[in-house]
Amino acid sequence: MARVYNFYAGPATLPVEALQEAQKNLVDYEGSGLSLIETSHRSKEYDAVHTATIDLIKELLGVPSGYSVLLLGGGASMQFGMVPMNLMPQGGSCDMTLTGSWAKKALADAKKLGTVHLVYDGGDSAFTTLPDPASVQSSANSSYLHITSNETIEGVQWKRFPQTEAPLVADMSSDILSRPLSVDQFGIIYAGAQKNLGPSGVTIVIIRDDLLERAPDSLPAYLNYRTHAKSGSLYNTPPVFSIYMVKLVLEWLQRQGGLGAMAERNRKKAALLYDAIETSGSFYRCPVDPRYRSDMNVVFRLPSEDLEKRFVTEAGATGMIGLKGHRSVGGIRASIYNAMPEEGVSKLVSFMSSFAQAHA
Ligand code: PMP
Q1: Pairing of the two strands 203-208 and 142-148
Q2: pLDDT for 339-355, tens place per residue?
Q3: Atom of ligand 1 nearest to the CA of 148
Q4: Pair (73, 180) in one structural domain
C-alpha cells in the first residue's frame, strides 16, 4: 500500500487503522447485510454508533455533567452564525478576539447579529502573536467572549485560555482532542471534524446546558441548539458516515493512550519542526511568536517564493504532499494533526535539511 505523508490542513490525514476498519465494514456493516450508510438513522445499528461517538467524546475530553455534546451539519462555519443567534439577545453584544483568518470570519457573522466589542486585534502583528490570556476580559453585559483556539492558516495557538466573566466560546476546529483541557472553562466548544476527528460533514458542539435556554423560539428549528439537545442530535438525518468515521478515529485515539499521550506526541512532532527551522541559519523562518507557535499547523517561509514552489514540488516527488501554505498568506504550512506519525515529521525534517544545503 503506497500511502504518502499527507500534510494538508483539512480534510487531513486520518489513522490508517480507522480507514481500514471502515473499508472492511463499508459493504456489509458488521454482518448486518447492508452498509451503515444505507441503514436508517433510527436503526439500532446506527443508534449504537451515534451513542458511542458522543460517549467517547465525553470520555476523552472529560466533559462534565451539565454539558451536552451535539453532532451537527453545516461545518464550523455554521457555528459562526449559530453562536450569536443562540446566545446574544436582540440588541445585545458579545466580545471577540481577532487572531487570524478564521476569527475574522466568525467576527463578520457576529457583527450581522449584534454589537461586537473587539477585545484583541492582532492585525498590527499580521496575526503572528496572541494576547496574554490574563489580559483578556469580557466587557459589561457581553453575552459571551469568542476565541479561536488554533488559527489554522497563521499557525498561532492559545496555550492557556482566558478566564472571563462572560461564557467563553471557542472555535477548536483545528486542535480539538490534540491536548487535555478543562471543558468547564468554556460555555461552548465547537469544531468541524475534518482535522483531528474524521472526515468533513459533522461538527461537534459542546455546550453548557444553561446556555441552551438562551435561544429565542423565533429561530428556525435547525438553527436552535435546543432542538438538537432535546433530540440527542437526531432531529434530522445526521451525517451518518462522518459520525461513524469519527467513532473509529476516537477509538484509535483511546488506544494511543488518550489526550495526555497525544499531547506529548504532538509537542514532540512540533518541536522537531520548529527546531529544524531555528537551526537552519535563517534559511527557514517562522514568523510566529515562539510563545504561541501552533503544535498543529507549522508555518514557515523560505528565502524566496520561487524556492517555496520548488520545496513543495520536490517534497511532493518524495511522497510528502499538502505543504503549500494557504493561498491568502503563501509560504509553507505543515499540518501535523494527531494522525500524522512522527516518522512523517522526521522525513520532512531531513528533507528540509538537504533542501537547505542544496539551495542556501
Ligand atoms: N475554524 C477553523 C479554525 C478552521 O480551520 C476551519 C476550516 N479550515 C473553519 C473554522 C471552517 O470550517 P468548515 O469548513 O467546517 O466550515
Answers
A1: unpaired
A2: 999 999 999 999 999 99
A3: 3
A4: yes
pLDDT in tens, 309-341: 999 999 999 999 999 999 999 999 999 999 999
Q: Is the CB of 74 under 6 A from ligand 1?
A: no
- The amino acid present at 250, given as its one-letter code, is L
Q: What is the CA radius of gyration of the chain?
A: 21
310: burial class by Cβ within 10 Å (0-12, 13-18, 19+)?
middle
CA 283 / ligand 1 centre spacing (Å): 31
The residues carrying an active-site annotation are 102, 171, 195
CA of 102 to the centre of ligand 1 (A): 7
The answer, yes or no, to whether residue 1 has pLDDT greater than 80, is no
Location of C-alpha cell 476546529: 173
11 lies in a domain? no
| Ligand 1 lined by 100 (C-beta under 6 Å) | no
Q: What would the pLDDT profile of 111-168 be if each residue is shown by its tens digit?
A: 999 999 999 999 999 999 999 999 999 999 999 999 999 999 999 999 999 999 999 9
The percent helix, strand, coil of the chain (3-state, each to 5) is 40, 15, 40
Quick check: CB of 152 below 6 Å from ligand 1?
yes
* Co-location of 230 and 298 in the same domain: no
Domain identity same for 319 and 293: yes
Residue 250 lies in a domain: yes
Please report whether residue 4 resides in a domain: no
Count of C-beta atoms within a 10 Å radius of residue 328 = 8
State the residue range of the domain holding 317. Answer: 258-359
Pocket test for ligand 1, best of 8, 77, 178, 189 (most atoms within 8 A of CB): 77
Report which residue type is found at 151: E
Is residue 344 within 6 Å of ligand 1 at its C-beta? no
Cα angle 104-336-273, degrees, rounded to a multiple of 5: 105
Terminal CA-to-CA distance of the chain, rounded, Å? 35
Rounded to the nearest angstrom, the distance between the alpha carbon of 216 and the centre of ligand 1 is: 26
pTM across the whole model: 0.98
Please report, in range form, the residues annotated as the binding site for L-glutamate. 42
The total number of structural domains that make up the chain: 2
CB-based contacts of 234, cutoff 8 Å, min separation 6: 41, 42, 50
Say what the pLDDT of residue 360 is: 86
